[in-house]
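Hey team,

Filing this mostly as a record. A colleague (T.K.) asked me to run one chain through the structure pipeline before their review meeting, and I want the input and output archived in the tracker in case anyone asks later how it was produced. No errors, nothing strange. Just documentation.

Input sequence:
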Amino acid sequence: MDKSVAFHTLGCKLNYSETSTLSRKLEDDGFVKRNFDDVADVYVINTCSVTENADKECRMIVRQIQKRAPEAMVVITGCYAQLKPEDIARIEGVDLVLGAAEKFNLNSHLRELTKAGVGGVAKICSCDIDDVNGFESSYSSTDRTRAFLKVQDGCDYNCSFCTIPLARGHSRSDSIEGVLNNMRELALGGTKEIVLTGINLGDFGKGEVGGRIHSSSFFELIQEMDRVEGIDRIRISSIEPNLLTNEIIEFVSRSKKFMPHFHIPLQSGSNTVLGQMRRRYKRELYADRVAYIKELMPHCCIGVDVIVGFPGEGEVEFKETFDFLHQLDISYLHVFTYSERPNTLAAEIKPIVPMGNRNDRNKLLRNLSYQKMQYFTAQHRGTTRKVLFENPGKNGMLEGFTDNYIKIETPSRSEWVKQIVDWVV
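Output structure:
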């Protein structure tokens, strides 16, 4: 009888794209895919290092598996598995820990895997992150409507708060040809929209694929993607402000495939804090990027990542951030509460912001985000925009997003599912 496998993903869109690819590889190898809440022979947890409670989440999920299927094999991979393999290996019920270099060799590891047993220690297959050089392409597809396509991995930046370079290694990319081939596969499968994902997307162009060194740029990539038939919409998931050039903004403003939607990490509106974070820009450059986008695309949606409670962020610095965001013509915020990470420079910076203050600042910015999105949506009331509708939700309502990322919800109509429809906002 064929073995069954179930996956659980923590973290970012990149993790989801990789989980989907791992799942397809195992299905090609004869495994039967199960929902994670079902009983399966093998459970694979793809972890994240960004969440503060990575260890707690991992332990909780493994306990759930043990109750449901005590004889099942449990494999942990992803960023947390690369950073803390020994800690994970000691979790009761875990059988295999795969680091960054071994993640995509999951099939071969499962052929040799045996249960660790009570009190046993899991097998660890990991390596020094500096030895991870290759690029593994991947994509995830949800009901063939939208796909997350990984085109870049790793990061050469050294932001003082971030463990991602330690978990994913140096910046490296797919080749343009490889990206276009994946696009064509997705188009054949009926995908309507692609979301480009990576750790530092604007740094696309570095690396080695299939033993060949290649060198190109993100701007060259999006120009080639724009020519591929069969995909209607493309979004850029996140791009650093210092890598978001005028030519990229101008190109998106002219393109029919690339959506008027940017997500640009800021992290702080205080130049003092940005310096402590080792970010590669100042707030003035960020403001210029936003202004130029809005000059060419007044209807463009702009999302912003921001961290509150970074060490040394006093009331003055937080007010600088709040006031800066308040006056910027942006659409929404993703707000993160700073949490200490071992082996980062930020862990040594003083003074530490009390957790209560961090949480209060998070609430203030989340409220600002709500107000920004309400205002952005109100600006487009009565205008006609193109909406890509997805499968109906559990409440029977049909959901979709306009080209400029306004969420639309309407009573379900079967003829609109997975279709792009002209809609009056």
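Quick notes for T.K.: The radius of gyration is 22 Å. The chain has three domains: 4-127, 138-379, 384-424.
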